[in-house]
Automatic annotation (TrEMBL):
Superkingdom of the organism of origin: Eukaryota
PROSITE patterns with a match to the protein in the record: PROKAR_LIPOPROTEIN, RETICULON
Pfam families (alphabetical): Reticulon
Name of the protein described by the UniProt record: Reticulon-like protein
Chief subcellular location: endoplasmic reticulum
Membrane topology, record value: Multi-pass membrane protein
Span of domain Reticulon: 3-193
Length: 193
């Protein structure tokens, strides 16, 4: 199943399980340490699998059948990734990392003044978000948004697109007004040529 199918709730059961488990984990991280969450989650899984194994063994003994290990099909799964897959994954991560580092270098060293100003405004707004919310709270809100906003947009696409177009028009007008009133070196070079 693809991520898009999950967030658009194509299969309600699978989306519900992923959403529920993810939200419970994030809420657990909000109130407990990561070590405690991992330990308690692992204990719960171990207790469940152990109980199921004992139950199946008792059932086989009472019915005098020999079905074998109840998790036999899962024990046959190949859990070690191939070297090629690992290299492919690392290459993708490295490519994204390098692009991010180059972009951050350009933003911090003010290669493009407008991009750096936008980045500064973004960082400034993050200071307010950081004052209002804890990091895990932002993750919880983002997780809930990922599972709710795409479906809401799909259901109300025409109205949302209409208001987004209106907002984009106003933003473009504001940017062009600011560019016209503030003389930047790049604007002077264009006029002199």
């Amino acid at each position: 199943m693809k991520l898009g199918d999950l967030v658009y709730w194509k299969d309600v059961k699978k989306s519900g399980v992923v959403f529920g488990v993810g939200l419970v984990l994030l809420l657990s991280f909000a109130c407990c340490s990561i070590i405690s969450v991992i330990a308690y989650s692992s204990l719960a899984v171990l207790l469940g699998t152990f109980s199921f194994r004992v139950y199946k063994n008792i059932l086989q003994a009472v019915q005098k059948t020999s079905e074998g290990h109840p998790f036999d099909e899962y024990l046959k799964w190949e859990v070690q990734p191939s070297k090629e897959k690992v290299h492919e994954f690392v290459d993708i991560i490295l490519e994204h990392f390098n692009q991010t580092v180059v972009k951050l270098r350009d933003l911090f060293l003010v290669q493009d003044i407008f991009d750096s100003i936008k980045f500064g405004v973004f960082l400034w707004s993050l200071t307010y978000i950081g004052a209002w919310f804890n990091g895990i709270t932002v993750l919880i809100l983002a997780f809930i948004s990922v599972f709710s906003l795409p479906k809401l947009y799909e259901m109300n696409k025409t109205q949302v697109d209409q208001y987004l177009q209106l907002a984009c028009t106003h933003i473009q007008e504001l940017i062009s007004t600011v560019k016209a009133k503030i003389p930047f070196p790049a604007a002077r070079k264009d006029k002199s040529q």
